[in-house]
Amino acid sequence: MILINIDSLSTTELQYIAQQEGLATWQSLDREALIDALEEAFEDQDDEIPAALKGKINRNRYCNSLTDYRGTMQHINGLPGVEELPESYFDTSIHLLLRDPQWAYAYWSLSQSAMHTVFGEQGELDGFLFLRVQETVLDTNEIKTFDIAITSEDTQWNINLPNMGSSYLVDLCYRDHKGNEMSLAQSKSVETHSSYWQNNGEQLALDEDLFTIHFSSLVTKEGEIIDNAVIRDIAQFLSKGVL
């Protein structure tokens, strides 16, 4: 039995699956021929599979992600339209992407000239690298900063954003052994916006069911509460002994 979604797969995905299934002629087949060949190959395999295992195998037979095929990470270079991404683009840049109102993702790279500045002719780090996160409060334009120490091997970082209702940008910075600092690259800014509950924490604090509905997902399996601005406000409100 062939699962649905085979027609939704791209030709490249079909070629990849055919390659993994050992179809010797996969490179010369067009899309329709690939589908027919895969259907025939899997029908032959189904006849040899015990009934108790068919459902499990068929569930994973087709997917829309090359790297998820049968749960494996396999080398797929050589297929049409598939290229390996370089480890570095050899430019000096840093980028900041907003994941949600509390977290941002930063990634960066260094050019050869920047590497020479940082590591010198001897190739040894004469100082250290760090990220300087700048927060601008949207309502007041107040600017705050904090630093995150990184190593020369790091190329990405998840950054916890202290407050909603602010814009953030990040500088990739270097400080030498004399204490001199320089910004190697700066990201564009991203904005977060205050939620309704950030300004109405008392309502959540006094309603246990409402609090549970909104924040049960912020507790880890180990029972630790994830850092969250609204929860900090609620804790501060409860610490005043209102109840």
Q: What's the short story on this structure?
A:
This protein is of the alpha+beta class. 27% of the residues lie in helices and 24% in strands.
Structure description:
With 243 residues, the protein is of the alpha+beta class. It is built from 7 helices and 8 strands, in the order αααββαββββββααα. It has helices spanning 11-20, 31-46, 51-59, 112-119, 201-205, 208-215, 229-238, and strands at 93-100, 103-109, 127-137, 143-150, 156-160, 166-176, 181-186, 190-191. The strands form 2 sheets. Strands 3, 4, 6, 7 and 8 form a 5-stranded antiparallel sheet that branches. A 3-stranded antiparallel sheet has the order 1-2-5, with no helix packed on it. Strand 3 (127-137) and strand 4 form a beta hairpin. The longest helix is centred in the first third of the chain and has 16 residues, at 31-46.
Describe this protein with a few key phrases:
alpha+beta, 24% strand, single chain, 7 helices, 5-stranded antiparallel beta sheet, 243 residues, 3-stranded antiparallel beta sheet
